[in-house]
Amino acid sequence: MLSNQHSFTVEFGQCDPSGIVYNPNFFIWFDHSVHALLARAGLSLKALIDEYGIDGIPVVEYKSRFLAPARWGDQLLIETGVAKLHRCAFDLHHRVFNAGTLAVECAETRVCTALDPALGRVKARDLPAKLAEAFGGG
Amino acid sequence: MLSNQHSFTVEFGQCDPSGIVYNPNFFIWFDHSVHALLARAGLSLKALIDEYGIDGIPVVEYKSRFLAPARWGDQLLIETGVAKLHRCAFDLHHRVFNAGTLAVECAETRVCTALDPALGRVKARDLPAKLAEAFGGG
Amino acid sequence: MLSNQHSFTVEFGQCDPSGIVYNPNFFIWFDHSVHALLARAGLSLKALIDEYGIDGIPVVEYKSRFLAPARWGDQLLIETGVAKLHRCAFDLHHRVFNAGTLAVECAETRVCTALDPALGRVKARDLPAKLAEAFGGG
Amino acid sequence: MLSNQHSFTVEFGQCDPSGIVYNPNFFIWFDHSVHALLARAGLSLKALIDEYGIDGIPVVEYKSRFLAPARWGDQLLIETGVAKLHRCAFDLHHRVFNAGTLAVECAETRVCTALDPALGRVKARDLPAKLAEAFGGG
Fold first, then answer.
1. What is the DSSP string of D60-128?
2. What is the pLDDT of residues D43-71, one digit of tens each?
3. Is C19 within 8 Å of D19 when comparing Cβ atoms?
């Protein structure tokens, strides 16, 4: 199944007074990684919204463990891969390595939603065919 | 002219490894203050968009000076007031006090924009009447 | 066991182009809630660091579920309580309500760490007595 | 004088409900650019703190103008250069280009500070020699 990775340096402003990464930044990086994964598949959320009329692919679950600290100036590598496809949702797995050591891991589930005019609110809908194909590698 | 103020405590996660407020947070707080100023006038950007068909009120200029540090746990008071109204824009003035000392001041200009269908892009337009009235206090 | 709650309004700048809260903000709010819980117990991380020589209380695990969207202007209530105390760690439970509906829930575990001079790095240590007492309510 | 540039793509989560970059992000990017400029000179704030005993190089002034919007997916180029050196401070100039168009420009002044034990607080001090040399290009 599709996966992607990218490296970057922890910035001064991403750290807290303890000198370690301020935790919510990991979820920002996971989100960037999801968009990078789409890009790797030749897709973008913008194009999926335009082509399929979906509303978005919001997160419904994160299970994350923080195993080792990351500090200002550390070089991190985030590896994000598709773990499982469901009818309306998909599971991803993120692993953050700091100098070769697994520092953070996170299981993420996102669901595809669209506005249901009858209900007047968004609800789950089938994954766009292009996304299912690109992520499933089938 | 209309003004508003609110107090809050600097959070741990809003500070950097030097222990002082990570500077971009001031601009987040200025933005919150602008929305609070609208609320004080009985307005909201959302309602202005709906009623007047504007696109937004983006910032076009900030001039800010940082005079004294603010640290984790400090109680800050932000005072935001309307400084001047223009046809399509308005000037605001923010002052941040830390224990009675002026810590930051910032002059901000925002412009009212709307989509010009002929141009296919947003351009400046007259301030909504309700906003001009509420901000001008005239 | 100790718990705390606070209400606030979702700001414009905390939402993404879909108009819903940009997900990492929930983790910022959870962090603020942990500090508010300490404050409710008459404690602060700063004072614990000074008195007990600890390094911090970093997050080691989050399990979060996002059940309903929160949008610009929504009034949210976050309720944070202690779920369980361990020797060196504690479990918290956060619930975010949007107009009475449970929108997000999150189980969080934090560990108390201190520098081990022999190891030259931080490691887990016993919870400070004041924190254990305040959080345990025993 | 020393200058630096880097390109990046505007992320989904860096945009607000209007679909344009949430303004405070520009100040985060300016800060990253300052650290990148130091790195280009073979320096880091961390090393300057260690070698010269300085406390930091906090921002004392920003004058910024926002000339054109930047949207989700846009490729931005930030060019940051040293504009002028003072005894204890330095002026930088940032320009952000969006597809070749100048979108944002910002003049920034930072001051070098160190703890004055007699005063019991930080105050301005001479720029570290290595920084003055690297930034001055003299």
1. EEEEEEE-S--BTT-EEEEEEEEEEE-SSEEEEEEEEEETTEEEEEEEEEEE-EEEETTTTEEEE-PPP
2. 999 999 999 999 999 999 999 999 999 99
3. no
Strands A101-111 and A89-98: what pairing? antiparallel
- Chain C residues with CB under 8 Å of B27 CB are none
Mutation site, A15, A20, A50, A66, interface C, largest C CB count within 10 A:
A66
CA-angle at D36, arms to D32 and D37, nearest 5°: 120
- Residue B120 and residue B129: Cα distance in Å, rounded? 25
* pTM listed for this prediction: 0.96
Distance CA B60, CA D104 (A): 9
Label residues D59-84 b or e (16+ Cβ within 10 Å = b). bbbbebbbeebbebbbebebbbbbbe
Count of C-beta atoms within a 10 Å radius of residue D129: 10
Q: How many CB atoms sit inside 10 A of residue B54's CB?
A: 20
How many CA within 13 A on the CB side of residue D18? 24
Has residue C26 got a pLDDT over 90?
yes
Tell me the chain A residues in contact with residue D13 when contact means C-beta distances shorter than 8 Å.
28, 31-32
Quick one: C132 exposed, middle or buried, by C-beta within 10 A (0-12, 13-18, 19+)? middle
What is the rounded CA–CA span in Å between residue B4 and residue B110? Answer: 17
* Two structure tokens written together for C71: 């949008």
Nearest-Cα distance to chain D for B135, in Å, is 22
Q: Taking CB atoms and an 8 Å limit, are D61 and B66 in contact across chains?
A: yes
* Residue numbers in chain B where pLDDT is lower than 50: none
Q: Please list, in sequence order, all residues whose beta carbon lies within 8 angstroms of the beta carbon of residue B100, skipping any fewer than 6 positions away.
A: none
Residue from the list C23, C61, C62 with its beta carbon closest to the beta carbon of A59: C23
In this prediction the ipTM stands at 0.95
